[in-house]
Each structure stands twice: as C-alpha cells, then as structure tokens.
Amino acid sequence: MKRQLSNNLKGAKNIGATIEKRLNEIGVFSLADLAQMTPVKAYQSICKQNPNKTFPVCYYLYSLQGALLGLHWDDLPTELKTELRNQVDRKRSTYA
C-alpha cells in the first residue's frame, strides 16, 4: 500500500526548520517533491549545494527516508540504512 504524502514539509517526521530550509534550497517543498527526487538525490544535492559543510548521513539521508515512511530516522531497518549508504557511496565513486 502506498503512503499518502502530505503537500507540506512542516510537521513531517524528522524534518525540522534547518532540513526544511536545505530542502527548499534544492527545490523540494513537499514530501511528494522529496519522493519524486528520492532521498539519495536530495541528500547529494544538499551536499553539492553546500560544498564546505558536512552533512551527517543519519541527520539528513536517513531523516529524509524516514520522513517519507513516517518513521524516526533511527527506526529505519538496518538493511535500508545500508542500502541508502551504498547508493550514496556508489554515486561518489562514479564522480571520483
């Protein structure tokens, strides 16, 4: 069953003011936008947009995925966390 996504980031699980601001900077204004972009691409875009900053995977990548699933980032299954990190690592190695 597909989860119904809100049109608003405010109040979404794991999305505070700072993450919302970062998402808005890359053109993501709703959970539907995030789902379309994917959490991996959104995380990578946030990192690219801010090259002099470090964005912890747990507070950004996992939080973005958790927001789509309605779960706290730490409650994501270990296998899903591993897959998300692998996707990010694969993309990094493509550009190296």
TrEMBL record:
Signal sequence region: none
Top-level taxon: Bacteria
InterPro entries linked to this entry: TfoX-like, TfoX_C
Transmembrane domains' residue ranges: none
A Pfam family of this chain: TfoX_C
Segments forming domain TfoX C-terminal: 6-87
Protein name in UniProt: TfoX C-terminal domain-containing protein
Organism this protein belongs to: Ignavibacterium album (strain DSM 19864 / JCM 16511 / NBRC 101810 / Mat9-16)
Lineage of origin: Bacteria, Pseudomonadati, Ignavibacteriota, Ignavibacteria, Ignavibacteriales
